[in-house]
Automatic annotation (TrEMBL):
Protein family: Belongs to the CobB/CobQ family. CobQ subfamily.
HAMAP family: CobQ
GO biological process: cobalamin biosynthetic process
CDD domains recorded: CobQ_N (cd05389), GATase1_CobQ (cd01750)
Active site: C343, H437
Superkingdom to which the source organism belongs: Bacteria
Purpose: Catalyzes amidations at positions B, D, E, and G on adenosylcobyrinic A,C-diamide. NH(2) groups are provided by glutamine, and one molecule of ATP is hydrogenolyzed for each amidation.
Protein's recorded name: Cobyric acid synthase
Length: 519
């Protein structure tokens, strides 16, 4: 058959969050696009504070933007019609078709499920009509049976759209065979009959040692493992989930310094961090070592401290004070040592924040004192600003996107950027702040700014590389994903699932008979 004969869809689910669903979808999308297949990604419902802005001013999960890039497409709200952005342990901002429509708790969300189910179905139908293949990504795990009745992204979607399902398991977490078996076993029979196979992710070592376990898994479930993807250290950009961003964790794998010295960066790991991927552009630079930090002593030796975005700015500011990090930042500022604040982090650096939208501890707008390192007052207001932007800094072109409720109501600080012919951000001695996400992906600007940071930090031996391109690194990682998929997945079996759907003869695992082979 020709590539033009490949039409259909498949759902990639996972045994857990961060099992590798997003990267597997991106790799499959890239592989199909390289074959000339018109392919699109789809995630019915995402929960993430790492988002990007589409061309039409909507928000989608970061992973779906990367998957769109893998397909050769611009990000679109069609690829992620429902997005939840957690602002606390109990409530999240609800974004539908790219637009924030309110804040919901679990019970509120359940009351909206019929409306959201219709939105999801309409978008998937539209994509399937326009593209040859749609690669869908599940959310969390399909084995969360307590949520099955309201599920929009896993087996609820698979049943509604008759999608074959492949389950990804991360072997790095341990117990992957039990995770895969258990994921199938707890599902009701009609759901089980769409689970068509497994994918092992992040394998290290000799596959022949794993093979007996895979054979037994097939015997127990009647389902094949379509491939074992090896662990690849070079895959780290656009990590949508922040599960790995704990204190001390390095970001990326920076190359050796271009000059004679390293430049060290401490990025503060806020509890409600958003768009944590902003700092990844720094880690792309040879000689720039980035680590996450959550204590004052972890900032002491850093040449640069980055205060990133937050989905709960005032709450995270309170956390910052409770940890004593506010004092460490003030000491840095007094010594003229570099600090960068992005979006919520920028707002924290000012004098005052008036928040009647994100801060959920009181029914009335809350007035919070900032760190006072910039002369800046912020007020949160609707509508939410979500837009792609272009501009310049000291004559150097920049680009990025904004996602925030906060408005600058007063400032005397010099502007850092010019965005759409208007002043934006602040630059006071060795302190910089901006609402623009993705700013550091502007290569020429990043190099010029890092040169200034190094000078202020006294790193006279640090020199930026002349040709680092974040876009090229991202493209290379997508191609590496596609290479891994081509080399380690059974592509003929994947094609059959896309074309034909789940096999008719998949057995149901009876949980009451697991002890006797479970079939």
């Amino acid at each position: 058959m020709s590539e033009g004969d490949l039409r259909g869809a498949v759902l990639i689910a996972g045994t857990t969050s961060d099992a590798g669903k997003s990267v597997v979808v991106a790799g499959i999308c890239r592989m199909l696009a390289r074959r000339g297949v018109r392919v699109a990604p789809f995630k019915a419902q995402n929960m993430s504070n790492n988002s990007v802005v589409t061309l039409d001013g909507g928000e989608i999960g970061r992973a779906q933007a990367l998957q769109a890039r893998a397909c050769g497409l611009a990000p679109s709200v069609r690829f992620n019609p429902v997005l939840l952005k957690p602002g606390s342990d109990r409530r999240s901002q609800l974004v539908v078709r790219g637009q924030a429509i309110g804040t919901v708790g679990a019970r509120d969300y359940f009351t909206r499920r019929q409306q959201l189910r219709a939105v999801v179905a309409a978008e998937l139908d539209s994509l399937r009509a326009e593209f040859d293949v749609v690669i869908c990504e599940g959310a969390g795990s399909p084995a969360e049976i307590n949520l099955r009745a309201t599920d929009l992204a896993n087996m609820g979607l698979a049943r509604a759209a008759d999608l074959p399902v492949l389950v990804v398991g991360d072997i790095d977490r341990g117990g992957v065979l039990a995770h895969l078996f258990g994921t199938v076993a707890v599902l009701e029979p009609a759901d089980q009959q769409l689970i068509s196979g497994f994918i092992i992710n992040k394998f290290r070592g000799d596959v022949s040692l794993l093979q007996p376990g895979l054979d037994q898994l097939t015997t127990l479930t009647g389902r094949p493992t379509l491939g074992v993807l090896p662990f690849a250290e070079d895959l780290w950009l656009d990590a949508e989930d922040s599960l790995g961003t704990v204190a001390g964790t390095p970001v990326g794998r920076p190359g050796s310094p271009h000059g004679t010295e390293w430049l060290t960066v401490a990025a503060i790991r806020l509890p409600r961090i958003s768009n944590s991927t902003d700092i990844e552009a720094l880690a792309c630079e040879p000689g720039v070592a980035v680590r996450w930090a959550d204590a004052p002593d972890q900032l002491a030796t850093a040449d640069l401290v980055v205060l990133p975005g937050s989905k709960a700015t005032v709450s995270d500011l309170e956390w910052l004070r409770a940890k004593g990090i506010d004092g460490a930042l003030r000491s840095r500022a007094a010594d003229g040592r570099p600090i960068l604040g992005i979006c919520g982090g920028y707002q924290m650096l000012g004098h005052r924040i008036i928040d009647g939208i994100e801060y959920l501890a009181t029914p009335e707008p809350w007035v919070a004192s900032g760190l006072g390192l910039l002369d800046l007052d912020i007020e949160f207001a609707d509508p939410k600003i979500a837009r792609q932007v272009t501009g310049s800094a000291a004559g150097i072109p920049v680009h990025g996107y904004e996602i925030h409720h906060g408005r600058v109501r007063r400032t005397t600080d010099p502007a850092w950027l010019t965005i759409d012919a208007a002043s934006e951000g602040s630059a006071r001695e060795a302190i910089w702040g901006t609402h623009v996400h993705g700013l550091l992906e502007s290569d020429e600007f990043r190099r010029a700014w890092l040169t200034e940071v190094a000078a202020r930090a006294g790193r006279t031996g640090f020199t930026v590389a002349p040709d680092t391109s974040v876009a090229a690194i991202r493209t290379a990682q997508l191609d590496l994903l596609a290479d891994l998929v081509e080399q380690h997945l059974d592509l003929a079996a994947l094609d059959r699932l896309i074309r034909v759907g789940a096999p008719d003869d998949l057995p149901v695992i009876r949980t009451g008979t697991i002890g006797s082979a479970g079939l």
